[in-house]
TrEMBL record:
PANTHER family: UPF0178 PROTEIN YAII. This is UPF0178 protein BGC07_14715. Belongs to the UPF0178 family. HAMAP family: UPF0178 (MF_00489). It comes from Piscirickettsia litoralis.
Length: 151
């Protein structure tokens, strides 16, 4: 099992949680971004820089991820591709996407895009909070514990 991170927009605090988990559990963690990323020295943590461009990092993650892998992303279309591939996706706020909820999330995302495009609403998600950080940490721990039991 590997953990892939859609790292361009991933909050720093989430990366730090992932760094600790990778080292503690000896799980390969791969951050994918279209810019250079600083990572702590570790045999379990790598950073891959892809070319700049729309969905280049997302496409790389989809190509590389295997069904046992976990992808950390706030990008719902990327999460949908990962779930369709049989892998797992977790957003930085702690929501685990699966076959039961990903279609609904895509529909909500598309509806919100339409509302923003028509000017009926503005803005994006709420600021990242301490509760979001805790929710992510708890969801990651639950996922990794379950994955470890199934190995």
């Amino acid at each position: 099992m590997k953990i892939w991170v859609d790292a361009d927009a991933c909050p720093k605090v989430i990366k730090e949680i992932l760094f600790r988990a990778a080292n503690r559990l000896r799980i390969e963690l791969i951050l994918v971004a279209n810019q250079s990323l600083a990572t702590p020295p570790s045999p379990y943590i790598t950073s891959i820089q892809v070319a700049k461009g729309f969905d280049i990092a997302d496409n790389y993650i989809v190509e590389q991820a295997k069904p046992s892998d976990l992808v950390i992303t706030a990008d719902i279309p990327l999460a949908a591709e990962i779930v369709d591939k049989g892998a797992h996706a977790l957003n930085p706020r702690g929501e685990l996407y699966d076959k039961e909820n990903i279609k609904e999330r895509l529909n909500i995302r598309d509806a919100m895009d339409e509302l923003r495009g028509s000017g009926l609403i503005s803005g994006g998600p709420a600021a990242f909070s301490q509760k979001d950080r805790q929710n992510f940490s708890n969801a990651l721990d639950r996922f990794l514990a379950k994955a470890k039991r199934s190995i």
